[in-house]
């Protein structure tokens, strides 16, 4: 009888832990669901070609056809603002599918995709809530000199 009681208590404890991790979230804790859409999925397919100059590795971005098709097109991206500089308002910033407060290296997929945003007019006030921007996608011609291989220029904030 004691054995059954111990096994039952063990299973209830494990079940409680699993429910807490899977979906019974505290309503005060924000849901950090990625903001993935078809544009983010195309961005996430970017890879790097590795070449060598002597013993030095050179990483060159490789844009697969679904991503290349978006070059110079106006796109809409939801995501989280990642500041590049301190301050309340940001004219240039990174946009990520995950919030900056979430460890970028957690999970199994590594670093989440990010793009560099250049606002057309004005700036965006920092927030930890998701935002949505619309602008023209450009590929950084000198990615080793910038913050991101993919940039959204002339961006406007969509309310």
Helix vs. strand class: alpha+beta
Biggest β-sheet description:
5 strands, mixed, barrel
Low-confidence stretches: 15-24
Mean pLDDT level = 80
Note the overall shape. globular
Query: What percent of the residues sit in helical stretches (DSSP H or I)?
Result: 10-25%
Whole-angstrom Rg: 21 Å
* Quaternary status: single chain
Strand content is: 35-45%
Note the total helix count. 3
H-E order: HHEEHEEEEEEE
Order of strands, widest sheet: 3-5-6-9-8
The span between the termini is: 62 Å
> How many individual β-strands?
9
Q: What does this 3D model show about the protein?
A:
The strands form 3 sheets. A 5-stranded mixed barrel has the order 3-5-6-9-8. Strands 1-2 form a two-stranded antiparallel sheet. It is built from 3 helices and 9 strands, in the order H-H-E-E-H-E-E-E-E-E-E-E. The chain has helices at 2-22, 38-43, 65-68; strands at residues 47-53, 56-62, 74-83, 89-90, 92-96, 114-119, 124-125, 131-139, 150-157. With 159 residues, it is of the alpha+beta class. Strand 1 and strand 2 form a beta hairpin.
SSE layout and pairing:
Elements (H helix, E strand, L loop, with lengths): L1 H21 L15 H6 L3 E7 L2 E7 L2 H4 L5 E10 L5 E2 L1 E5 L17 E6 L4 E2 L5 E9 L10 E8 L2
Parallel strand pairs: 6-9
Antiparallel strand pairs: 1-2, 3-5, 3-8, 4-7, 5-6, 8-9
